[in-house]
Design brief:
Radius of gyration: 61 Å
Low-confidence stretches: 1-107, 118-135, 269-287, 501-519, 1190-1194
Mean pLDDT: 82
Helix content: 10-25%
Number of helices: 11
Length: 1464
C-alpha cells in the first residue's frame, strides 16, 4: 500500500491494522489461558496431550507471524513434525467476553468444556489422517490402534455428555410435537399437549383467543403443567364458551415461536341441564352473529427520526361487544405481517390497538396497515410512516445504510447485502465498510480494509458453526455515517448440514461435525458446474457443486486461476483449502481476463481439476441504473403531492427509487423517502400548503445510485379537486297531490371546488319493495331545495341526491326515508331549511336559514331559534328568543367556550308555530387561530371601506360580501376589491341607504367569516372622519386655555398633536394681529406642539377674544378663547389676588389658615400653619380683640400654631385671631366661633361625644328598670332624646332620665307590660345624629323584670327586718354591789320579739335581772345588785319575719379591794 493512509482509517482507531493485530493477540492469549485450564483437567491420554501440545505451539507461531493480505487471522494445527494438519477454532473471539453467551456458573462451564474437548479431539484425530507422509508399517499399525482406542473413548464421552446435557447450544424454541385440535362433547374434559425444545429453557404461555389463560382466575377450570419439555393445558367440563382457538407460545432469549390448536365443543340436541346457564340472547359466531367493526381515532401520516420511539394506535369499536370473542389484530408494513420483536411491540387493550416502534430506523419506514379481523370480515386502516436520518456525528457525513441482509451463508463465508442511503451529506459516497460481530459478544471487527462501492460484499474467514451479525457504514470525504441496524444472525455452516440438522442456530463457540465416518484410499472426483456468480472491480465469486465421487468423506477445495490466453495455473489458496463450495477471490487486476478451476482434496489426495470457466474480465458486471424518465407531480392534499415518473430503461436488479423535493427557486433539496420504493409512483407528505415545489428521482441497485432525473415542473401544494361527497339529511319541505319539495344539507366534503348544482333521483316504494330510480331533474339545481313533480297521490317514494362540481358528479346520498305524496292541509307553516352557521367565535355565532316552502294558511310572520348542547338529551332544547324575529338570521351570544351546540328553527304564522327544522351539525364554540374581524378603514382621501383578511386561503377561495346576509350583486353602492388574502368593500357614496349588517365569507376555508353592523351613529362618525381626511386639520391635544402663574402672570396655551418644522402660528386679539413685545411674550415648541403667550397682568382693555391660528402645509386649525364679562372680571380678580399673595408670601405668612378640630377626648384644638418664619418671628393669639395670655397653652414649633380648649362651653364663643410678624411683614388669620360658627363647632363636639357612646344596656334596680350608656365626655349643651317604639318619651314621675358623671340613663319605675318595646337614645349633632338602641321585650324584659322584683323584695325586707339600733357597749366594767342599767333602741315591722341571753342561755326577768321592752322601741337591761357571778357575755336577740339581729356586750365585775391591790 502507499505511504498515505485513507482518512477513514486515520480517524477511527478500531479500523487500524495495528489495532486489529492487538485484538488478535488478545484473543490468542485468552485462548491459550483457557486451553491450558482444559489441558490440566484432561491428562489421562498421552496421545491427546501430544496433539494438544502441537496445537498450542502452532498458535504461538501464528501469534508471532504476520497476518495475510486481507488481515484474516489464521489458526493452524500442526503435528510433532510441524506439518499442517488442519484448523483450530478458538472459543474466545472477543477481547473480554466469552463467546458461548451461556451461564457463568461452574457447572455449565464444565459442560461446555467437556463438549469442546470431545469435539476438538475428534476433529484433530480426523484431520490427522490427512497426512500424506510415508511411515513404516509398525508406526502405521500403532497409530491406527491408538486412533481406534481414542475414537472409542471420544464416542463414549460424547454419549455421556449428550445424556448429561442434551441441548448445550443456545437456540430458539422448537416444537417437537405440536398441539392438535379437538372436537368434544359438552361437559367432557380436553387436554392439549406439546413438546418443546430450546436453550435456555423456554417460557411457555397458553392463550385463548389471544388472551392469556390464568388458572387462578377460574379455579378448577384450567390446569397447566410442564414437565421435561412436555407442556399441557387441561380444560375441565367444557361448555360453549370454551370453543375457541388456543395458542401456546414458547419464548427464550433467542426467539419466540407459537403453535395453534382449535377446540370445538358440541352439545347433544335437546339436552340442556337445568343447572347450566340459559343460552345468551346473542348466539355465538357460528350461529349468525354479524360483527360491525369501526376503526376510529386513526393514526395519520407520521414523521420520526432515527433513534426515536413512535407509537401508532387506533380505537376499535366492535358491535355487538362480546367479551369472549376478541378480534384478531394484525399489523403490516408494506403488506408484510409484523411479528413482535425488540424493534416492534404490539398491544391490544380490548378497544385500542397500538403498535410501538421502540427504536426507529429507516428500515421502519413504509406503509403501515392495521387489520382488525372478526368472523364477519375485517376492516383496515393504513398510513405512511417516514423516518428521517439522525443527525450525523460529523457535519456533511452521509446517512446510514439500511436493510442489511445475509445471503448464501456457508461454512466459512456469507454475502452481506444492503441498500444505499438517500442522503449522501452533500458529497458523493466513497464506499461502505462492513462490520461483523459474533453472537454472544459485543466486539465488532471490520471486514474490509478499503471501502467497497458495491452494495454487496462477501465476508470470508468465518468459523464454522458460529453465528454472526453484520452492520454497514457509509463514508464520504466529510466522515463516517452512523452504523446501520444490525442484520439478523447468520450461521456459518453448510446448507446441506443446516437442512439435515434443522434450524437449531445460532451457534456459539462450538463446531458441529456433519461428515460421515471417513473411508481411506478414495480420491475425490472433479467438482461440478463451476461458474462465476458475481464479478466486481474488487472481487470475483465462484460457486460449484461437490463431486459425485467424494469417497464418503468430507472434502476440501483448492482454487486455481490463470490469465486468459496462457496455460499458467496458479493456486490461490495454497495454505488453506476451503470447505465451502463457494469462494471469493480478491486482489485481481481490474480489466484483465481470468479463467478459474477447482480441485477437490481429502486425506487420500488431491483430485483432478474441474472444467475451467470461460474467460472473465474483472470489473462490475452490474451497471448503475440509468436515470429515471419524466417526473410528473399532481395535487393530492394540502400537505402532499403525488409524484409519478417513468422507470429507468436500463436498470438491472433494481432496488428502488429515491425521490427528492425542493422549494421552487431555492435549489435546496431534501429527501422525500429514506427507504427505496419500487413503484413508479409515490406520495410525498409533509409539504407546506401553498408553497411551490419541484421534484427529481434517482434509481438504486447494488452497483450504486443513478443520476438524477430531470426536474419536474413546479407544482403548488394544495388539495386536489375531487367530486363532492354525497349530500345528507333529506327532508320534505312541502307536499301536494302530485309533487313534493325536498330539502337537504350540503356535503361535508365539497371536493376542493364550488358545488355547481345538485341532481335528484326518486323511486316508488310498493309494499316495502323499492323500484327503479328515475331522474327528477336533468339540469343541475343550485339551491338545496327542489320540487319533484309528476308524482302520484298517496304513493310512497324515496329520494337520493348527488352533488356536482367541476370535477364531476359525486356518488348519490343514501336513500331517504320513505315519504308519502299527499296534500298538506295543516294551518301552521312547514319547517325552515338550509340552516347555515357563520362567524363562529368562542362566545357567539350567526345562524342563517331559509323561509319554509309551505307557508300554511297564513304568511309566516316570525321565527324562533332553539339551542341545546350537542351531547344533551332531546328534552334540553330551549329557545334563544322569546319574541319572534322577522329576519332570517340571528346572532346567538353567551355561548360557552369549548362547548358544542346544535340549533334548529321554527316558523310561525297566525295559526301558530310550525314544525322545527332539521337540527344543524354540532358546532364547537371556539375562536379558531387566525380568525380576523371586519375592520372599517377611512383612508387619507376620506374613502370609507370595509376590510377583511384571511390567512388560510386556498387556491379556490373567494371573498363573498353580503348585506344583511344576502349576497351583494348590485355594485352601484359598493365596489369590491381583492388582492391576495385581503378584500375590501368600498362605499361609493355613503348615506343612510347603506345602513345594515355587512358580512364577508371566504369559501373553501374552515368557516372564515366576519361581519360589521353599520349603524346610524357609526355612519355619522365615519362621515365626520371622512370629512376630516378630505379637509385635513391640524389635530389638537388641547384647545386654547388660560391659566394663572406666579405673581398673577397670565398664560394662554394650546397643544397640537403633531406639527412639522414648517408649522406657523398667528396670534389674534379682537381680530387684530398681536406680536412679541413688552406686553406679549410668545413661545412655539414644534417638538411638543405647545404654543404659549404670556401677559404680566390683565388690564381693563384686555377684555375680548384671543385666537391662535395654526397652519402646516394645507392643514389648518384655530382655537379661540373668549374673556368677557364676569369671566374676565373673575380672571382679573384672581390675577390680582395671586400677585398680592406672592407679595404676602415674601414674609411670614399662613400656609394653612386658622381652623379647628375636635379630638376623641372632646378637646377643641385651634390650629394653623405658618411658613417662611425665622427666629425673630412672633405669633400672637387674640379672642374678641383681647390677647390670650401665655397660660392658654400656646404652641409654636415647626411652623404649626395650636390652642387647645378643654371642656368647651358658651363662654368660649368668640372671634379668634392669630398674628405673625417680623421685620419682613405681618400676616393674620381669623376664625369666627360665634353664632353659627360656634354651633358648628359644638355640633362637631356633640358628634364626637355621640360616637364615643357605648351600646345601650339594661339594669334592674329596686325601683324598676334602668337603661344607660356611657360617653367619654359629657357636655351640658349636649341634646339627647329618649325614644320608645320610635316615639319620643314624655317624662313623668314613673319614667325619668338623668346624667351621672359620664352615664346617661333612663329610669322606668314599677315597669308594666306597656313598657315593653324598642328603646333608643338619640344624640343631636346638627346633622343626621346618632342612635343607640336596645330591645326591651321577650326574654330580656322577663329577666330584667324578675331581677327588679327580687331587688324590690330584698329592699323591703332590708327596711323592715328586726334591728338593734344601738345603746349597748361592747364591755361593761362595774364594781360589785353597784346597779347596772343598759338601754337600747329596737326597730322592725312587725314589732320584733326580744330575748336576752347570758352565756348563750336565755334569761328570765326577776328581781335580780329586770328585763323590759317598752313601746315596741326600747329594751332595757337592769341588774339591781351586781355581784361577781354576773360577770359574763350577754346578748340581746331581736327577731321578726324579715330577719334576726343580735347585740353583744360583756360584763366584768370587780371587787374594790382587789382592784386597788392590783393597782399597787
Amino acid at each position: 500500500m502507499s505511504g498515505s493512509m485513507p482518512f477513514y482509517q486515520k480517524h477511527h482507531r478500531h479500523y487500524d491494522r495495528d489495532y486489529r493485530s492487538r485484538e488478535t493477540e488478545s484473543a490468542i492469549s485468552q485462548y491459550q489461558q483457557s486451553s491450558g485450564r482444559y489441558s490440566a483437567r484432561s491428562s489421562s491420554s498421552s496421545t491427546t496431550q501430544g496433539i494438544r501440545a502441537a496445537t498450542f505451539t502452532s498458535l504461538d507461531d501464528a501469534r508471532l507471524s504476520p497476518l495475510s493480505k486481507r488481515g484474516k487471522p489464521t489458526y493452524l494445527a500442526m503435528d510433532k513434525e510441524n506439518q499442517i494438519i488442519g484448523y483450530v477454532v478458538p472459543i474466545f473471539r472477543g477481547s473480554k467476553e466469552f463467546a458461548s453467551g451461556l451461564s457463568d456458573t461452574e457447572d455449565i462451564r464444565a459442560k461446555e468444556t467437556a463438549g469442546y474437548l470431545a469435539r476438538r479431539d475428534l476433529f484433530t484425530s480426523g484431520v490427522e489422517m490427512e497426512r500424506v507422509e510415508q511411515k513404516s508399517r509398525r508406526t502405521v499399525m500403532r497409530e491406527s490402534a491408538e486412533r481406534i482406542s481414542l475414537t472409542k473413548r471420544i464416542h463414549e464421552n460424547e454419549e455421556y455428555h449428550k445424556r448429561l446435557n442434551e441441548d448445550s447450544l443456545m437456540h430458539p424454541p422448537e416444537f417437537v410435537i405440536k398441539p392438535r385440535s379437538h372436537t368434544v362433547w359438552e361437559k367432557q374434559c380436553v387436554r392439549l399437549h406439546c413438546t418443546i425444545s430450546g436453550w435456555p429453557e423456554p417460557r411457555v404461555v397458553w392463550y385463548k383467543n389471544n388472551v392469556s389463560i390464568d388458572p387462578m382466575s377460574d379455579p378448577g377450570k384450567y390446569k397447566i403443567e410442564s414437565s421435561y419439555s412436555v407442556h399441557s393445558l387441561e380444560i375441565n367440563r367444557c361448555d360453549f364458551d370454551d370453543t375457541a382457538q388456543y395458542r401456546v407460545s414458547a419464548m427464550n432469549s433467542k426467539g419466540e415461536l407459537s403453535a395453534f390448536a382449535s377446540v370445538v365443543v358440541k352439545r347433544f340436541k335437546g339436552e340442556v341441564e337445568e343447572s347450566l346457564p340459559a343460552p345468551r340472547p346473542h348466539p355465538c359466531l357460528e350461529y349468525g352473529v354479524t360483527f360491525e367493526t369501526h376503526i376510529v381515532e386513526k393514526f395519520g401520516v407520521s414523521f420520526g427520526r432515527e433513534g426515536e420511539t413512535m407509537s401508532l394506535g387506533c380505537s376499535v369499536i366492535i358491535y355487538p361487544s362480546l367479551q369472549r370473542f376478541q378480534p384478531e389484530i394484525e399489523w403490516y408494513r408494506d403488506d408484510k405481517l409484523l411479528v413482535p420483536s425488540k424493534w416492534v411491540q404490539t398491544h391490544w387493550s380490548g378497544d385500542r390497538a397500538t403498535l410501538t416502534l421502540t427504536h426507529l430506523n429507516k428500515e421502519d419506514e413504509g406503509l403501515y396497515t392495521l387489520r382488525v379481523i372478526t368472523k364477519s370480515g375485517y376492516e383496515t386502516h393504513s398510513a405512511y410512516v417516514f423516518v428521517q436520518d439522525a443527525d450525523a456525528e460529523v457535519a456533511g457525513a452521509p446517512g446510514a445504510p439500511l436493510d442489511v441482509c445475509c445471503q448464501e451463508a456457508n461454512k466459512d463465508y456469507v454475502i452481506v447485502t444492503w441498500k444505499q442511503p438517500a442522503v449522501d451529506g452533500g458529497n458523493s459516497i466513497l464506499g461502505y465498510f462492513v462490520d461483523r460481530c459474533e453472537v454472544g459478544t459485543t466486539h465488532w471487527s471490520q471486514c474490509n480494509d478499503a471501502p467497497v462501492k458495491f452494495a454487496r460484499f462477501p465476508v470470508t474467514g468465518l468459523v464454522e458453526g458460529r453465528s454472526y451479525v453484520f452492520r454497514v457504514r457509509a463514508v464520504n470525504k466529510s466522515g463516517m455515517s452512523h452504523p446501520s441496524r444490525v442484520s439478523e444472525p447468520a450461521v456459518a455452516m453448510d446448507p446441506a448440514d443446516r437442512g439435515r440438522k434443522g434450524a437449531s442456530a445460532p451457534w456459539t463457540g462450538q463446531i458441529i461435525v456433519t461428515e460421515e465416518e471417513p473411508v481411506e484410499g478414495v480420491v475425490p472426483g472433479k467438482p461440478r458446474d463451476l461458474m462465476v456468480t458475481e464479478a466486481t472491480k474488487t472481487y470475483v465469486v465462484l460457486s460449484w457443486k461437490p463431486p459425485s465421487e467424494k469417497g464418503h468423506e468430507g472434502v476440501m477445495y483448492y482454487i486455481e486461476k490463470c490469465v486468459s490466453g496462457t496455460d499458467s495455473w496458479q493456486r490461490v489458496n495454497t495454505e488453506i483449502p476451503v470447505k465451502s463450495p463457494r469462494f471469493a477471490l480478491f486482489d485481481l487486476a481490474e480489466g484483465k481476463s481470468y479463467c478459474f478451476r477447482v480441485r477437490c482434496c481429502n486425506s487420500a489426495g488431491v483430485g483432478e481439476p474441474s472444467e475451467a470457466t470461460e474467460a472473465t474480465v474483472v470489473g462490475d458486471k452490474l451497471d448503475i441504473p440509468s436515470a429515471p424518465g419524466r417526473v410528473i407531480p399532481t395535487r393530492n392534499t394540502d400537505t402532499s403531492v403525488v409524484v409519478a415518473w417513468e422507470a429507468s430503461r436500463e436498470a438491472k436488479e433494481l432496488v428502488g427509487y429515491y425521490i427528492e423535493n425542493s422549494v421552487a427557486g431555492s435549489n435546496v433539496w431534501g429527501p422525500c423517502n429514506n427507504k427505496p420504493v419500487k413503484a413508479t409512483r409515490f406520495i410525498c407528505h409533509g409539504l407546506t400548503t401553498g408553497e411551490k415545489y419541484v421534484f427529481r428521482v434517482r434509481a438504486v441497485n447494488a452497483a450504486g445510485i443513478s443520476e438524477f432525473s430531470q426536474e419536474s415542473e413546479a407544482i403548488e401544494v394544495k388539495a386536489a379537486i375531487a367530486s363532492p361527497a354525497p349530500p345528507y339529511g333529506i327532508t320534505v319541505l312541502e307536499s301536494v297531490r302530485d309533487s313534493m319539495v325536498l330539502g337537504w344539507k350540503q356535503p361535508t366534503f365539497i371536493g376542493g371546488a364550488d358545488i355547481i348544482g345538485y341532481f335528484v333521483d326518486y323511486r316508488e316504494v310498493v309494499d316495502g319493495v323499492p323500484g327503479k330510480w328515475h331522474e327528477a331533474n336533468i339540469k343541475a339545481v343550485s339551491e338545496r331545495a327542489y320540487r319533484v313533480s309528476e308524482l302520484k297521490e298517496n304513493r310512497l317514494y324515496q329520494f337520493q341526491v348527488r352533488a356536482a362540481n367541476m370535477a364531476g358528479v359525486g356518488i348519490p346520498s343514501l336513500p331517504s326515508n320513505t315519504f308519502k305524496c299527499e296534500e298538506w292541509t295543516i294551518a301552521v307553516p312547514g319547517p325552515p331549511y338550509d340552516l347555515q352557521v357563520l362567524e363562529v367565535r368562542k362566545d357567539s355565532l350567526v345562524l342563517l336559514w331559509k323561509a319554509p316552502v309551505y307557508q300554511g294558511r297564513d304568511p309566516v310572520n316570525g321565527y324562533y331559534v332553539d339551542i341545546k348542547e350537542a351531547e344533551a338529551d332531546f328534552e334540553t332544547w330551549k329557545g334563544v328568543n322569546e319574541k319572534a324575529t322577522s329576519k332570517k338570521y340571528m346572532k346567538i351570544k353567551d355561548l360557552k367556550d369549548g362547548v358544542s351546540y346544535v340549533f334548529r328553527v321554527r316558523a310561525q304564522n297566525k295559526a301558530g308555530v310550525g314544525k322545527a327544522s332539521e337540527p344543524t351539525e354540532p358546532v364547537l364554540a371556539e375562536t379558531k387561530p387566525g380568525n380576523k374581524e371586519l375592520v372599517v378603514v377611512v383612508d387619507d382621501d376620506g374613502v370609507i371601506s370595509l376590510n377583511f383578511e384571511c390567512e388560510n386561503l386556498s387556491a379556490e377561495s373567494k371573498f363573498v360580501w353580503s348585506k344583511n346576509y344576502e349576497e351583494i350583486t348590485d355594485c352601484t353602492r359598493l365596489t369590491m376589491e381583492t388582492k391576495g388574502n385581503k378584500s375590501k368593500a368600498i362605499f361609493n357614496a355613503p348615506s343612510e341607504d347603506d345602513l345594515g349588517i355587512y358580512s364577508c365569507v371566504v369559501t373553501h376555508t374552515d368557516g372564515a367569516s366576519a361581519s360589521y353592523n353599520l349603524t346610524e351613529e357609526g355612519l355619522k362618525e365615519l362621515l365626520k372622519i371622512s370629512h376630516d381626511h378630505k379637509f385635513p386639520i391640524i389635530p389638537l391635544k388641547s384647545e386654547l386655555a388660560v391659566e394663572l402663574l406666579e405673581k398673577g402672570r397670565v398664560r394662554f396655551w394650546l397643544q397640537a398633536e403633531k406639527i412639522s418644522a414648517n408649522g406657523k402660528v398667528e396670534y389674534v386679539f379682537n381680530d387684530n394681529m398681536i406680536h412679541q413685545g413688552e406686553k406679549y411674550k410668545m413661545n412655539f415648541d414644534k417638538n411638543t406642539g405647545i404654543i404659549e403667550m404670556f401677559m404680566e397682568s390683565l388690564e381693563k382693555q384686555d377684555e375680548g377674544t384671543f385666537t391662535f391660528q395654526l397652519q402646516d402645509g394645507k392643514a389648518t386649525n384655530q382655537s379661540s378663547l373668549v374673556l368677557i364679562g364676569d369671566v374676565f372680571k373673575q380672571l382679573q380678580k384672581e390675577s390680582e389676588f395671586q400677585r398680592k399673595e406672592w407679595h404676602r408670601k415674601q414674609g411670614p405668612h399662613f400656609v394653612e389658615y386658622l381652623s379647628y378640630e375636635v379630638t376623641s377626648e372632646c378637646i377643641v384644638r385651634l390650629k394653623c400653619k405658618v411658613g417662611n418664619i425665622k427666629k425673630e418671628t412672633v405669633a400672637l393669639w387674640y379672642k374678641d380683640g383681647r390677647e390670650i395670655k401665655a397660660n392658654e397653652k400656646l404652641d409654636f414649633s415647626e411652623g404649626v400654631l395650636t390652642l387647645e380648649i378643654a371642656q368647651i362651653s358658651k363662654k368660649d364663643a368668640g372671634v379668634y385671631q392669630v398674628i405673625v410678624k417680623d421685620d419682613r411683614g405681618t400676616d393674620k388669620s381669623t376664625l369666627n366661633l360665634t353664632d353659627q360658627g360656634f354651633k358648628d363647632l359644638m355640633n362637631q363636639v356633640f358628634s364626637v361625644i355621640a360616637n364615643s357612646s357605648t351600646p345601650l344596656k339594661i339594669q334592674s334596680t329596686e325601683q324598676g328598670i334602668r337603661l344607660y350608656t356611657f360617653v367619654n365626655y359629657y357636655n351640658d349643651e349636649l341634646h339627647v332624646t329618649w325614644h320608645h317604639k320610635d316615639s319620643a318619651i314624655a317624662f313623668t314621675d314613673r319614667i325619668t332620665s338623668g346624667v351621672v358623671g359620664e352615664q346617661l340613663w333612663l329610669q322606668i319605675s314599677e315597669p308594666t307590660e306597656k313598657d315593653k318595646g324598642k328603646y333608643a337614645i338619640e344624640f343631636f349633632d346638627g346633622k343626621g345624629g346618632l342612635r343607640r338602641t336596645v330591645e326591651l321585650s321577650g326574654q330580656a324584659y322577663d329577666d330584667a323584670f324578675a331581677e327588679f322584683q327580687r331587688l324590690k323584695a330584698a329592699a323591703v325586707a332590708e327596711r323592715n327586718r328586726a334591728r338593734v339600733a344601738g345603746g349597748l357597749p361592747d364591755v361593761v366594767t362595774i364594781q360589785e354591789g353597784k346597779a347596772l342599767n343598759l338601754t337600747c333602741n329596737i326597730s322592725g315591722d312587725p314589732v320584733p320579739e326580744v330575748t336576752w341571753l347570758k352565756n348563750e342561755r336565755e334569761m328570765v326577768s326577776d328581781d335580780h335581772y329586770i328585763l323590759k321592752f317598752e313601746s315596741g322601741k326600747f329594751a332595757s337591761f337592769t341588774i339591781t345588785t351586781v355581784n361577781t357571778s354576773d360577770s359574763g357575755k350577754y346578748s340581746i336577740l331581736v327577731k321578726n319575719k324579715y330577719g334576726t339581729e343580735s347585740g353583744d356586750f360583756t360584763v366584768s365585775v370587780f371587787i374594790p379591794d382587789e382592784e386597788h391591790g392590783k393597782k399597787k
